[in-house]
Specification:
The chain has 313 residues and is mainly alpha-helical. The protein has helices at 3-44, 50-69, 78-102, 105-112, 115-125, 133-151, 164-191, 193-222, 225-254, 259-265, 268-281, 287-306, 308-312. α2 (50-69) crosses α9 and α6 (133-151) runs antiparallel to α12 (287-306).
Length: 313
Amino acid sequence: MNDRQRRGNAGKFEKLNSMAGISYALIGGSLWGISGTVSSVLFSQYGMPYLSLVTIRMLLPGIILVAVLRPAFPRGDLKRFFLFSIFGLFGVQIFYLATIAYSNAPTATLLQYLFFPMVIAAEVAMKRIGFTLAIAISLLLAIVGTFELSTGYPSQTTGIILSEGALVLGLLSALTAAYYTLVTSTLISKHGTMPVISWGFIVGGLISVPFSFAPTVVFFSRINIPEIAPVILLTVFVAFFGTIIAFGLYMKSMSRISATKASLAGTMEPISAALSSALFLGIFLTPLQYVGGSMIICAILVVQFFSKETGKS
Protein backbone atom coordinates (compact mmCIF):
# COMPACT_ATOMS: atom_id res chain seq x y z
CA MET A 1 0.00 0.00 0.00
CA ASN A 2 1.52 3.35 -1.03
CA ASP A 3 1.37 6.66 0.85
CA ARG A 4 -1.47 7.96 -1.30
CA GLN A 5 -3.64 4.94 -0.48
CA ARG A 6 -2.79 5.25 3.22
CA ARG A 7 -3.79 8.92 3.21
CA GLY A 8 -7.00 8.04 1.38
CA ASN A 9 -7.86 5.34 3.90
CA ALA A 10 -7.01 7.67 6.78
CA GLY A 11 -9.27 10.32 5.30
CA LYS A 12 -12.13 7.85 4.93
CA PHE A 13 -11.66 6.68 8.52
CA GLU A 14 -11.65 10.27 9.79
CA LYS A 15 -14.84 11.02 7.84
CA LEU A 16 -16.58 7.90 9.17
CA ASN A 17 -15.41 8.74 12.68
CA SER A 18 -16.81 12.26 12.35
CA MET A 19 -20.12 10.97 10.98
CA ALA A 20 -20.39 8.53 13.89
CA GLY A 21 -19.70 11.34 16.35
CA ILE A 22 -22.36 13.57 14.81
CA SER A 23 -24.82 10.65 14.86
CA TYR A 24 -24.13 10.04 18.55
CA ALA A 25 -24.75 13.71 19.33
CA LEU A 26 -27.94 13.80 17.26
CA ILE A 27 -29.34 10.68 18.91
CA GLY A 28 -28.35 11.92 22.37
CA GLY A 29 -29.99 15.30 21.77
CA SER A 30 -33.10 13.61 20.38
CA LEU A 31 -33.39 11.37 23.45
CA TRP A 32 -33.11 14.40 25.70
CA GLY A 33 -35.90 16.13 23.80
CA ILE A 34 -38.16 13.05 23.77
CA SER A 35 -37.59 12.53 27.49
CA GLY A 36 -39.02 16.02 28.02
CA THR A 37 -42.17 14.97 26.19
CA VAL A 38 -42.35 11.74 28.22
CA SER A 39 -42.01 13.83 31.40
CA SER A 40 -44.92 15.95 30.20
CA VAL A 41 -47.00 12.76 29.78
CA LEU A 42 -46.20 11.71 33.35
CA PHE A 43 -47.27 15.12 34.67
CA SER A 44 -50.37 15.78 32.58
CA GLN A 45 -51.83 12.31 32.10
CA TYR A 46 -50.78 10.46 35.25
CA GLY A 47 -50.45 13.31 37.72
CA MET A 48 -46.90 12.55 38.82
CA PRO A 49 -45.41 15.47 40.81
CA TYR A 50 -42.40 16.96 39.04
CA LEU A 51 -40.51 16.81 42.34
CA SER A 52 -40.86 13.02 42.33
CA LEU A 53 -39.40 12.77 38.85
CA VAL A 54 -36.51 15.06 39.82
CA THR A 55 -35.48 12.67 42.60
CA ILE A 56 -35.87 9.53 40.48
CA ARG A 57 -34.15 11.05 37.44
CA MET A 58 -31.13 12.01 39.54
CA LEU A 59 -30.79 9.17 42.04
CA LEU A 60 -31.42 6.23 39.71
CA PRO A 61 -28.83 7.19 37.05
CA GLY A 62 -26.37 8.23 39.76
CA ILE A 63 -26.65 4.92 41.59
CA ILE A 64 -26.38 2.91 38.34
CA LEU A 65 -23.31 4.85 37.15
CA VAL A 66 -21.54 4.57 40.51
CA ALA A 67 -22.37 0.85 40.81
CA VAL A 68 -21.24 0.01 37.27
CA LEU A 69 -18.30 2.37 36.75
CA ARG A 70 -17.18 2.73 40.41
CA PRO A 71 -15.77 6.26 39.95
CA ALA A 72 -13.82 7.82 42.79
CA PHE A 73 -15.59 10.49 44.82
CA PRO A 74 -14.21 13.94 43.89
CA ARG A 75 -12.74 14.86 47.28
CA GLY A 76 -10.21 17.45 46.22
CA ASP A 77 -12.63 20.35 45.71
CA LEU A 78 -15.65 19.65 47.92
CA LYS A 79 -17.01 23.19 48.09
CA ARG A 80 -17.05 23.66 44.33
CA PHE A 81 -18.39 20.12 43.81
CA PHE A 82 -21.31 20.54 46.22
CA LEU A 83 -22.17 23.95 44.75
CA PHE A 84 -22.12 22.35 41.30
CA SER A 85 -24.29 19.42 42.44
CA ILE A 86 -26.87 21.61 44.20
CA PHE A 87 -27.08 24.79 42.11
CA GLY A 88 -25.97 23.17 38.86
CA LEU A 89 -27.30 19.62 38.46
CA PHE A 90 -30.17 19.79 40.95
CA GLY A 91 -31.06 23.34 39.93
CA VAL A 92 -31.23 22.47 36.23
CA GLN A 93 -33.37 19.39 36.83
CA ILE A 94 -35.91 20.94 39.19
CA PHE A 95 -36.44 24.13 37.19
CA TYR A 96 -36.50 22.35 33.83
CA LEU A 97 -39.07 19.76 34.94
CA ALA A 98 -41.08 22.43 36.76
CA THR A 99 -41.20 24.46 33.54
CA ILE A 100 -42.52 21.41 31.68
CA ALA A 101 -45.15 20.88 34.39
CA TYR A 102 -46.34 24.50 34.12
CA SER A 103 -46.07 24.80 30.33
CA ASN A 104 -44.89 22.07 27.93
CA ALA A 105 -41.74 20.27 26.79
CA PRO A 106 -40.93 22.38 23.68
CA THR A 107 -41.22 25.65 25.59
CA ALA A 108 -39.18 24.37 28.54
CA THR A 109 -36.43 23.04 26.29
CA LEU A 110 -36.18 26.21 24.22
CA LEU A 111 -36.09 28.42 27.31
CA GLN A 112 -33.37 26.26 28.83
CA TYR A 113 -31.30 26.78 25.67
CA LEU A 114 -30.98 30.42 26.67
CA PHE A 115 -28.14 29.18 28.89
CA PHE A 116 -25.79 29.44 25.91
CA PRO A 117 -26.18 33.21 25.38
CA MET A 118 -26.04 33.58 29.19
CA VAL A 119 -22.68 31.77 29.26
CA ILE A 120 -21.43 34.00 26.44
CA ALA A 121 -22.55 37.14 28.29
CA ALA A 122 -20.87 35.95 31.50
CA GLU A 123 -17.61 35.18 29.73
CA VAL A 124 -17.64 38.59 28.07
CA ALA A 125 -18.28 40.24 31.46
CA MET A 126 -15.39 38.24 32.98
CA LYS A 127 -13.22 39.23 30.00
CA ARG A 128 -12.56 35.61 29.06
CA ILE A 129 -13.64 36.39 25.50
CA GLY A 130 -13.99 39.58 23.49
CA PHE A 131 -17.30 41.18 22.58
CA THR A 132 -17.83 40.57 18.85
CA LEU A 133 -20.56 41.33 16.34
CA ALA A 134 -21.54 37.64 16.40
CA ILE A 135 -22.06 37.79 20.16
CA ALA A 136 -24.12 40.99 19.86
CA ILE A 137 -26.36 39.39 17.20
CA SER A 138 -26.64 36.21 19.28
CA LEU A 139 -27.75 38.09 22.40
CA LEU A 140 -30.26 40.15 20.39
CA LEU A 141 -31.72 37.00 18.83
CA ALA A 142 -31.97 35.38 22.25
CA ILE A 143 -33.81 38.35 23.78
CA VAL A 144 -36.25 38.78 20.89
CA GLY A 145 -36.72 35.00 20.63
CA THR A 146 -37.59 34.74 24.32
CA PHE A 147 -40.11 37.55 23.98
CA GLU A 148 -41.79 35.88 21.00
CA LEU A 149 -41.76 32.45 22.62
CA SER A 150 -43.32 33.89 25.77
CA THR A 151 -45.99 36.07 24.19
CA GLY A 152 -46.53 35.05 20.57
CA TYR A 153 -46.76 38.79 19.88
CA PRO A 154 -48.69 40.18 18.04
CA SER A 155 -50.85 37.09 17.53
CA GLN A 156 -53.55 36.49 20.14
CA THR A 157 -55.12 33.46 18.47
CA THR A 158 -55.18 29.83 19.65
CA GLY A 159 -52.05 28.27 21.03
CA ILE A 160 -50.06 28.12 24.22
CA ILE A 161 -48.99 31.51 25.49
CA LEU A 162 -46.47 31.27 28.28
CA SER A 163 -47.55 32.23 31.78
CA GLU A 164 -45.38 34.46 33.96
CA GLY A 165 -44.65 31.57 36.35
CA ALA A 166 -43.51 29.25 33.57
CA LEU A 167 -41.34 32.02 32.10
CA VAL A 168 -39.62 32.61 35.45
CA LEU A 169 -39.05 28.87 35.94
CA GLY A 170 -37.70 28.54 32.39
CA LEU A 171 -35.28 31.42 32.88
CA LEU A 172 -34.13 29.91 36.19
CA SER A 173 -33.56 26.65 34.32
CA ALA A 174 -31.36 28.49 31.82
CA LEU A 175 -29.55 30.36 34.60
CA THR A 176 -28.70 27.17 36.51
CA ALA A 177 -27.66 25.49 33.23
CA ALA A 178 -25.33 28.43 32.58
CA TYR A 179 -23.84 28.05 36.07
CA TYR A 180 -23.49 24.31 35.45
CA THR A 181 -21.64 25.00 32.20
CA LEU A 182 -19.29 27.59 33.67
CA VAL A 183 -18.15 25.49 36.65
CA THR A 184 -18.17 22.02 35.05
CA SER A 185 -14.95 22.35 33.05
CA THR A 186 -12.81 23.06 36.13
CA LEU A 187 -14.20 20.09 38.04
CA ILE A 188 -14.02 17.68 35.10
CA SER A 189 -10.46 18.68 34.19
CA LYS A 190 -9.44 17.92 37.78
CA HIS A 191 -11.51 14.81 38.59
CA GLY A 192 -12.84 13.44 35.27
CA THR A 193 -16.32 13.41 33.75
CA MET A 194 -17.86 10.31 35.31
CA PRO A 195 -16.81 10.96 38.93
CA VAL A 196 -18.22 14.50 38.79
CA ILE A 197 -21.47 13.69 36.98
CA SER A 198 -22.34 10.36 38.67
CA TRP A 199 -21.65 11.53 42.21
CA GLY A 200 -23.23 14.89 41.37
CA PHE A 201 -26.44 13.09 40.41
CA ILE A 202 -26.46 11.27 43.75
CA VAL A 203 -25.79 14.42 45.81
CA GLY A 204 -28.40 16.41 43.87
CA GLY A 205 -30.89 13.54 44.17
CA LEU A 206 -30.39 13.34 47.93
CA ILE A 207 -30.91 17.11 48.20
CA SER A 208 -34.25 16.69 46.40
CA VAL A 209 -35.58 13.93 48.71
CA PRO A 210 -36.90 16.25 51.49
CA PHE A 211 -38.90 18.18 48.87
CA SER A 212 -40.21 15.15 46.99
CA PHE A 213 -40.81 12.58 49.73
CA ALA A 214 -44.33 13.64 50.77
CA PRO A 215 -45.75 14.24 47.26
CA THR A 216 -44.17 10.98 46.04
CA VAL A 217 -45.77 8.95 48.85
CA VAL A 218 -49.16 10.56 48.16
CA PHE A 219 -48.85 9.96 44.41
CA PHE A 220 -47.96 6.27 44.62
CA SER A 221 -50.49 5.59 47.39
CA ARG A 222 -53.31 6.93 45.20
CA ILE A 223 -52.23 5.59 41.82
CA ASN A 224 -54.62 3.21 40.06
CA ILE A 225 -53.30 -0.33 39.52
CA PRO A 226 -53.62 -0.19 35.68
CA GLU A 227 -51.48 2.97 35.70
CA ILE A 228 -48.56 1.43 37.61
CA ALA A 229 -46.93 -0.31 34.63
CA PRO A 230 -47.02 2.68 32.21
CA VAL A 231 -45.81 5.04 34.95
CA ILE A 232 -42.85 2.77 35.71
CA LEU A 233 -41.99 2.30 32.03
CA LEU A 234 -42.17 6.02 31.27
CA THR A 235 -40.13 6.89 34.36
CA VAL A 236 -37.46 4.33 33.46
CA PHE A 237 -37.33 5.79 29.95
CA VAL A 238 -36.66 9.26 31.36
CA ALA A 239 -34.04 8.04 33.84
CA PHE A 240 -32.29 5.50 31.59
CA PHE A 241 -32.69 6.51 27.94
CA GLY A 242 -33.29 10.23 28.54
CA THR A 243 -30.43 10.59 31.03
CA ILE A 244 -27.82 7.81 31.08
CA ILE A 245 -27.94 6.82 27.39
CA ALA A 246 -28.43 10.38 26.12
CA PHE A 247 -25.57 11.72 28.23
CA GLY A 248 -23.33 8.77 27.34
CA LEU A 249 -23.90 9.21 23.61
CA TYR A 250 -23.27 12.94 23.83
CA MET A 251 -20.01 12.45 25.76
CA LYS A 252 -18.96 9.70 23.29
CA SER A 253 -19.60 12.10 20.42
CA MET A 254 -17.17 14.61 21.92
CA SER A 255 -14.39 12.01 21.72
CA ARG A 256 -14.91 11.85 17.94
CA ILE A 257 -15.88 15.41 16.97
CA SER A 258 -15.22 18.91 18.26
CA ALA A 259 -17.25 20.38 21.11
CA THR A 260 -18.61 22.92 18.63
CA LYS A 261 -19.99 20.25 16.29
CA ALA A 262 -21.39 18.31 19.27
CA SER A 263 -23.17 21.36 20.66
CA LEU A 264 -24.60 22.17 17.22
CA ALA A 265 -25.90 18.62 16.87
CA GLY A 266 -27.27 18.96 20.39
CA THR A 267 -29.75 21.54 19.13
CA MET A 268 -31.73 18.49 18.00
CA GLU A 269 -33.08 18.45 21.57
CA PRO A 270 -35.64 21.29 21.21
CA ILE A 271 -36.53 20.08 17.71
CA SER A 272 -37.25 16.54 18.91
CA ALA A 273 -39.16 17.91 21.91
CA ALA A 274 -41.38 19.98 19.59
CA LEU A 275 -41.93 17.12 17.13
CA SER A 276 -42.65 14.46 19.76
CA SER A 277 -45.00 16.79 21.68
CA ALA A 278 -46.91 17.55 18.47
CA LEU A 279 -47.09 13.90 17.42
CA PHE A 280 -47.93 12.25 20.73
CA LEU A 281 -49.61 14.99 22.77
CA GLY A 282 -51.07 17.26 20.10
CA ILE A 283 -49.23 20.23 21.65
CA PHE A 284 -48.61 23.02 19.17
CA LEU A 285 -47.28 26.51 19.73
CA THR A 286 -48.42 29.49 17.72
CA PRO A 287 -46.45 30.18 14.51
CA LEU A 288 -44.81 33.21 16.10
CA GLN A 289 -43.78 31.15 19.12
CA TYR A 290 -42.05 28.73 16.76
CA VAL A 291 -40.33 31.76 15.23
CA GLY A 292 -39.18 32.77 18.72
CA GLY A 293 -37.87 29.27 19.39
CA SER A 294 -36.02 29.27 16.07
CA MET A 295 -34.41 32.60 17.02
CA ILE A 296 -33.08 31.05 20.24
CA ILE A 297 -31.54 28.18 18.26
CA CYS A 298 -30.13 30.67 15.74
CA ALA A 299 -28.56 32.60 18.63
CA ILE A 300 -26.48 29.50 19.36
CA LEU A 301 -25.65 28.80 15.72
CA VAL A 302 -24.50 32.37 15.05
CA VAL A 303 -21.96 32.29 17.86
CA GLN A 304 -20.73 28.81 16.99
CA PHE A 305 -20.23 29.58 13.32
CA PHE A 306 -18.92 33.13 13.45
CA SER A 307 -17.16 33.68 16.78
CA LYS A 308 -13.69 32.15 16.93
CA GLU A 309 -13.20 33.19 20.54
CA THR A 310 -16.32 31.40 21.63
CA GLY A 311 -15.24 28.21 19.89
CA LYS A 312 -12.03 28.29 21.92
CA SER A 313 -13.87 28.84 25.19
